[in-house]
Write a structure and sequence with these properties.
- By secondary structure, this protein is of the alpha+beta class.
- 45% of the residues are buried.
């Protein structure tokens, strides 16, 4: 499908939408129904609505409907208010953009209109520093060369100015002609690809003939960019409103489900099934008791014949009575906690990058606890592990090495003499360095020249050539490039006409330019690119062994290499090729593929001029960060587009892998399926055999082999990924990065992807957690990520501190929320056996609502401040992260412990209360208040016991809330119409009440304290040892016992990934916040039939990478 845009033709401007931008989710009319629909799409909300509706049936409700409707309305109101506020802010933003005034040509005259009134086909006029209101095709600028400069930071995050040029068909049109211009633009339907625009333009006479002019993204001004350093520019609107590329890119990303959220959902489902069983059993028992025993009691009167639904009354009563098993406030509490986790990351001064003034930022507030369960980190290299600050260091020209002795080619006397003596090979080499790029030179008023480059490599090459007296001094839109070269003190100016540019793509891995020497009239093809892209295009008669050795030597030093080549073109050869290139450039279908095919027809028989070597230094703290995170049990994969040797050298420098003999690299190479299959088979068998040895194994795979593997041998490669903790993937494309992330996710691993450039966005979005670095390549990765940081070293604190604390806090909050709801529910169930199994509630509606919303929810929210260990201890002992990775604080076993605790506490509270107050002198309200008081006392001590650190806020929340319970009930007891008149006054004056509370606390907390003491004393975990050492203020950082314990814990947890030990209790450990790990999934059989099946001899250091069903 394609779009036809008629330029400056008002009769055809109603074919497409106007430029009104709308990012609103709701309107005044649909807000209430749409918001309610979205909230009730969740199962838990549907469940609570059903319960609330059933409570309206007075025959079956054991409590006032307000006990459910009140919290439900409050929760819905809070969610709706938040949505309304967010949507109102979006409306204000849209209103500001829509009502901005712009210049548009109407009937040959420029007029002021609002941006929302722009139509497709309008000619829009921009002035310097104006924001582009819609997607435009540039047709005129104030510059005689036909260029303009735009800032695209709002679009792609890149801060460097971009150059945009008018199409050749519009060259020479003055301002008056631009007001009367007529023509047609044929372009694709709207899409969100901001780096691609494939279209054609044809102007109508008298402006030009009917020749078709191809258009690319370089001929466009996209919405939200800013016009800079250009007096004015004008363009034709091709996409407007929400159909612009930016508008198409907007949208709400798919929500990510954390491992803890998945576990909570499973536990909620289990509780729901348990509730159904309880309701069915008690409902059946209640109906039996009613038909047998109840009719014998003189005070119970039932009609002889009841309605048809009589058998459902008691089961439905119990359904309403047991509905509080699933806490209604858990989602709101978790959302609030997660928002605070994100704020803690934003406020963390230790993650503020002083160099770039960049703070850490959490864009996704819902997945902080997943940071504590990361098992695989997939990282880019350039700009992520390195600074992306390129420095030209060495080069090899015509087989001669420069810079090997001094370490800096720019200071090599031999190279300087060669430049001074006008050595042809050196001059050609510098010419290609200077010309073959997209760098824009900018002259200041003082005459100084600075460069704007989209690639740091190109910037380094052009600056290096300038230091060697070949200075790029100008480029203009008439496609004339001026190069000023100070050669042999002549100071002559050389001019080259750029005839065509063969742009770089990730598939071609090279860039070429066709230039014409204005002095001699000769035409040359200049090329630069990766060695595997340039060497195959070399002249068959040229010896390139020296250049290949140079590439290998530089790669061993961790330097980035580029190969340069050129050849002279015959004029008839160029003319013939130029026709094919122009035809391919103007096609609307498969333009990139056809251009690549045509480029290949010209890029052959190159004379290889030399190799450049650029240094990209490691960021500060990278080796230490990787070493600490590897100690934490996290596996690392490096995914880079660099050469294999360079990637390996960087991996060695940053502790990614170990050198021989401690480490061993296994290589997977090949160009054909058979070669790759044999290589993969050999590596996989070696990995199986040698994993029992104390040696760090890692595999290395290149992009060619990886492409074959992901298509043909994915299952075998997945098995290899499980066995290996480290991988280096070289020459990979952005899509392959995303595929590797998906492969690890398919094995139930929690993945974190980190990168800094636009080519990392797909990988970042695919991972469970995406982290972007605000680097020199712009903010595109940071904006697409869940978290953004200034430097790689901050990843250590993000995972070990924020991730671990968030996991621990969420684990406690979620299980405690179920515990306090189950406690009150089990008391109700036990009471039903003393009330004829009739579904009667022991507690009144107000007490139940206050218990769920106020008495028990506020204290536990302060767990957001709890720290089981200090940040310093956590950072110095990263091995303890294994407890989070293995899910030892939230799993069915730990939940069973909290479930058992709620049953035991319910029995204690009810039996002590009933024995103390079940006599003829006690009222029902007194019994209810005593039981409720017992629950409140237990809650206060449980939360206090589970807290590991205390602040004034936590103490006030826990014990201030405890005092508030009595204050509120004293006030209620003083109101005659409240139904609890004088109850609390009478109870508090009775010594038996306080004795009852003491007994409840003593019997309820005694076993918990005893088990905890046993665990801490006789079976302490590594965390327990660190806690004891911290509290005793001993030398916690040099304890030999602690180090051995940490090593044994790592080994134990590794083996727990394979099978859960049956000897460990699954009941008492949850009471101590320590439980076996959740089971994991194993990979299936190998994809290779010829792979030998061998007994598994995987050591404990690799066992944790396997997962059982």
């Amino acid at each position: 499908m394609k779009r036809i845009v008629y330029i400056n033709d008002e009769s055809c401007q109603d074919l497409y939408c106007d430029n009104r931008v709308s990012n609103r989710k709701y309107t005044l009319l649909n807000f209430l129904p749409k918001n309610l629909w979205e909230q009730f799409r969740r199962f838990m909300n549907q469940y609570f609505l059903l319960i609330a509706c059933l409570q309206l049936w007075s025959l079956i409700t054991p409590v006032n409907p307000a006990s459910t409707w009140g919290p439900l309305i409050i929760i819905f109101a809070v969610s709706a208010t938040k949505e309304a506020w967010d949507d109102y802010n979006r409306y204000l933003s849209d209103k500001q953009a829509n009502e901005k005034e712009v210049w548009v040509v109407k009937n040959g005259v420029r007029k002021h209109i609002q941006a929302q009134d722009i139509c497709v086909g309008n000619v829009v006029w921009l002035r310097e520093n104006d924001e582009v209101p819609c997607d435009l095709v540039l047709i005129g600028t104030s510059e005689p060369q036909g260029t303009c400069y735009v800032e695209t930071a709002a679009l792609d995050g890149e801060t460097d100015l971009k150059t945009r040029v008018i199409p050749p068909t519009c060259v020479g049109l003055d301002s008056e002609q631009l007001h009367r211009i007529k023509g047609v633009i044929e372009c694709p339907n709207p899409d969100k690809d901001i780096r691609r625009f494939v279209a054609n333009m044809r102007l109508f006479p008298p402006f030009i003939d009917n020749d078709i002019c191809p258009l690319t993204i370089n001929n466009t001004l996209l919405q939200s960019c800013y016009l800079r350093n250009t007096e004015w520019a004008c363009g034709v609107a091709v996409y407007t409103g929400n159909e612009t590329k930016l508008g198409m890119s907007r949208g709400i990303p798919e929500p990510k489900l954390t491992a803890m959220d998945a576990m909570i959902d499973k536990l909620t489902g289990a509780i729901f099934l348990f509730q159904i069983v309880v309701v069915v059993v008690l409902g059946f028992a209640g109906n039996v008791w009613k038909d047998t025993e109840a009719r014998k009691q003189w005070y119970v009167k039932y009609p002889e014949e009841g309605p048809w639904y009589e058998l459902l009354v008691i089961p439905l009563r119990f359904e309403l009575l047991c509905s509080i098993m699933i806490p209604i406030s858990i989602k709101v509490s978790l959302d609030l906690m997660k928002s605070l986790y994100a704020k803690f990351i934003d406020w963390d001064e230790d993650m503020f990058d002083a160099e770039t003034k960049t703070p850490a930022h959490a864009a996704n507030t819902a997945i902080s606890e997943d940071l504590g369960q990361v098992e695989y980190i997939l990282t880019d290299k350039t700009g992520t592990l390195t600074e992306n600050r390129m420095i030209f260091k060495r080069c090899c020209i015509n087989g001669i090495f420069f810079g090997n002795e001094s370490g800096d080619a720019l200071e090599d006397v031999e190279l300087l003499n060669a430049v001074a003596n006008n050595i042809p090979h050196v001059i050609r080499f510098l010419t290609v360095m200077t010309l073959c790029n997209t760098v824009i030179p900018i002259k200041s008023k003082s005459g100084a020249i600075s460069y704007k480059a989209q690639s740091q490599d190109e910037d380094a090459l052009v600056k290096a050539a300038a230091q060697l007296h070949m200075v790029l001094i100008g480029k203009n839109g008439n496609i004339i490039v001026e190069v000023f070269a100070e050669i042999n003190f002549n100071g002559s100016i050389l001019q080259y006409e750029v005839l065509d540019i063969l742009e770089f793509t990730s598939d071609r891995k090279r860039m070429s330019m066709v230039v014409k020497d204005c002095q001699t009239g000769k035409i040359f093809l200049l090329s630069k690119g990766a060695d595997e892209a340039i060497f195959p295009c070399s002249n068959s008669g040229q010896q390139i062994r020296t250049f290949m050795d140079a590439v290998e030597q530089y790669a061993q030093l961790g330097l980035r290499t580029l190969c340069l080549g050129w050849r002279e073109l015959k004029e008839d050869e160029y003319i013939e090729w130029s026709h094919m290139f122009k035809e391919a450039s103007s096609t609307l279908v498969d333009r990139e593929w056809r251009l690549a095919e045509v480029c290949q027809r010209l890029e052959h028989d190159l004379e290889i001029l030399g190799v450049t070597a650029i240094e990209d230094r490691l960021q500060d703290g990278v080796p230490e960060t990787i070493e600490i995170l590897r100690k934490a049990g996290i596996n690392f994969w490096m995914l880079t587009g660099d050469k294999q040797s360079t990637a390996i050298q960087i991996a060695l420098l940053c502790n990614f892998i170990s050198s021989e003999p401690k480490g061993q690299l296994l290589f997977i190479n090949g160009k054909t399926e058979d070669e790759v299959a044999r290589s993969l088979e050999r590596v996989l068998l070696t990995m199986r055999i040698t994993t029992s040895e104390p040696k760090e194994l890692a595999f290395v795979v290149d992009g060619w082999a990886l492409e074959i593997i992901l298509k043909q041998y994915k299952e075998a490669f997945t098995e290899l990924a499980i066995l290996s903790r480290t991988a280096i993937c070289c020459r990979v494309t952005p899509s392959q990065k995303a595929q590797l992330v998906e492969l690890l996710k398919s094995c139930d691993y929690r993945t974190l992807a980190i990168g800094d450039g636009g080519n990392d966005v797909r990988m970042i979005q695919q991972a469970d957690i995406g982290v972007g670095i605000s680097g020199r390549e712009g903010l595109q990765a940071a904006r697409a990520a869940d978290y953004s940081i200034g430097k790689f070293r901050f990843l250590k604190r993000l995972i070990l501190v924020h991730g671990r604390y968030s996991y621990n806090r969420t684990a406690f909050l979620s299980q405690y929320s179920f515990y306090k709801s189950l406690l009150i529910c089990f008391i109700q169930i036990i009471f039903s056996f003393l009330s004829g199994i009739s579904g009667t509630s022991l507690f009144n509606s107000v007490s139940l609502m206050a218990y769920n919303v106020f008495y028990t929810s506020i204290p536990v929210l302060t767990v957001v401040l709890d720290k089981d260990l200090s940040e310093r201890t956590v950072m110095q002992h990263p091995q303890i992260l294994i407890y989070c990775q293995a899910g030892r604080l939230l799993n069915p076993s730990t939940f069973a412990g909290w479930f058992g605790r709620s049953v035991y506490h319910a029995i204690v509270v009810f039996l002590i209360t009933i024995h103390a107050y079940a006599d003829e002198k006690s009222e029902m309200e007194e019994l209810s208040m005593v039981a409720l008081s017992g629950c409140i006392w237990l809650q206060a001590f449980v939360v206090t016991l589970e807290m590991n650190s205390f602040t004034i806020l936590q103490i006030l929340a826990i014990w201030g809330n405890f005092v508030a319970f009595y204050v509120i009930n004293f006030i209620v007891s003083s109101i005659p119409s409240a139904g609890m008149y004088t109850i609390m006054f009478r109870l508090c004056t009775q010594p038996s009440y306080w004795i009852t509370m003491v007994l409840i606390v003593a019997l309820g907390m005694g076993p918990v304290l005893a088990l905890r003491y046993f665990r801490y004393t006789y079976r302490p975990s590594a965390i327990n040892i660190l806690q004891q050492a911290e509290r005793s203020r001993g030398p916690i950082y040099s304890l030999g016992m602690l180090e051995s314990q940490l090593k044994s814990v790592e080994k134990d947890v590794a083996s727990l990934s394979i099978n859960q030990p049956k000897s460990r209790s699954s009941v008492y450990e949850p009471l101590l916040s320590d439980s076996p790990t959740a089971t994991r999934r194993s990979i299936g059989p190998s994809a290779f039939d010829f792979f030998q099946s061998m007994p598994s001899r995987i050591s404990s250091s690799y066992m944790r990478n396997c997962k059982d069903n």
